[in-house]
Amino acid sequence: MTQKRVLSGIQPTSDSFHLGNYLGAVKQWVELQDGHDAFYCIVDLHALTGEIEPALLRKRTLASAAQLIALGISPEKSTLFVQSQVPQHNQLGWLMECIAGFGEASRMTQFKDKSSKAGADSARVGLFTYPMLQAADILLYQAHLVPVGEDQRQHIELTRDLAGRFNTRFGETFRVPDNFILKTAAKIQDLQDPAAKMSKSSGSVAGVLEIMDTLEANAKKIKSATTDAGREIKFDEKEKPGISNLLTIHSALSGVAIEKLEVEFEGKGYGDFKSVVADVVVEYLRPIRSAALELLDDEKSLIDILHVGGAKARDVASSTLDLAYKNLGVVR
Ligand code: AMP
Ligand code: TRP
């Protein structure tokens, strides 16, 4: 039996992924590489819907690639590529725009949130058409599964609707992907404000553990994490959100169950506990960070890896696009 196809994408919008991105998404992508035909895309065109800074876009695209590889996305097992290197994304994106309704696109909550933040006059058209480009990202690869976080559920629903509509109207063209919302088992909270999720946009600098930050800086952030009243090391998200978050982080990286950690730290103080968590994080990130830095040190080889992925992606994408054009009556 052939393997199921997986496709997901991540925007190159920061110099470093944070621990939440890793545990909430990328780690699960790594696991899906085995037993699936995985395509992972750095969606640089989507990143253009935010602030456009040419030097930063380039730097962050390469940094994202280096980090994904260092975190375990293997360019041999998976097809790792940059969206803009596969022009079929824009081409199918247009076709999706031509079958999507203005009303349904207007109902996308990510668009509503981001455009209201930007203000009606500064929101750009690309932000509005973003979900149709995302649908193209997915449908070009005939993906069975699209592992994404809960926040992307509506975009995947739209993708399914657009695929179904196209197939019904113009003949079988796209696979309608399953819903595949990543399990939020490891939801990581801000170290300074454990009521909020760890996030590069809203979080405090001191509350976010960045993969590319120095090991010393990350150790310091853990040692100065907000703790809770009382002195017990117990998992209790309501009463002890800070300690619970640190237990989650330790357990996710060490593989030791939280209940075992509670026993191990019985009678110990918060200070000792935080030192141990800091060590676990530092030792986990040490080889990852140095692998990423090494990849970034040889930009040409890194770009070569992305070119190989891009060529594989174009192969698959162009046959889907051809079929879509043919079914639409476009002369080829
Ligand atoms: P973002 O770039 O912030 O949209 O994050 C990309 C993906 O990383 C999300 O769709 C989530 O799956 C995951 N993620 C981000 N922040 C966290 C977090 N604090 N805890 C767990 N997963 C997260
Ligand atoms: N919109 C997604 C996000 O913000 C990123 C993305 C773009 C994506 N294209 C995709 C995710 C295709 C999955 C599949 O996280």
TrEMBL record:
This is tryptophan--tRNA ligase. Keywords: Aminoacyl-tRNA synthetase, ATP-binding, Ligase, Nucleotide-binding, Protein biosynthesis. Coiled coil: none annotated. It catalyses: tRNA(Trp) + L-tryptophan + ATP = L-tryptophyl-tRNA(Trp) + AMP + diphosphate + H(+). One of its GO terms (biological process) is tryptophanyl-tRNA aminoacylation. Pfam families: tRNA-synt_1b. It is found in: Mitochondrion. NCBIfam families: trpS. It is an enzyme of class 6 (ligase). Its EC number is 6.1.1.2. GO terms for molecular function: ATP binding; tryptophan-tRNA ligase activity.
